[in-house]
Amino acid sequence: MKFGGTSVADADAIGRVASIVRRQIQLDPEEAPVVVVSALSGVTDRLIAVARAAEDGQGDAAASALAELLDRHVEIAARLTSGSAQAELLADVRREFDGLIGLVQALAVLREVSPRSLDAVVAVGELASSRMVAAALLERRIPAAWMDARRVMRTDAEHTVAVPDLIDTCDRALEHVAPLLAQGKVVVLGGFIGATANNITTTLGRGGSDYSAAIFGSCLDADEIQIWTDVDGMLTADPRVVAQPRVVPRLSFAEASELAYFGAKVLHPSTILPAVSKNIPVRILNSHRPDNPGTTITRETGALDGQLSAIACKRDVTVIDITSTRMLMAHGFLRRLFEVFERFKTAVDVVTTSEVSVSVTVDDTRRLEAIADNLRNFADVACEREMAIICAVGENLRMDATLFGRAVTALERIPLRLVSQAASRRNITFVLRDADVPHAMTRLHEQFFGRA
Ligand code: ASP
Ligand code: MG
Question: Which residue, 106, 284, 350, 397, is most buried by CB atoms nearer than 10 A?
Answer without folding.
Answer: 284
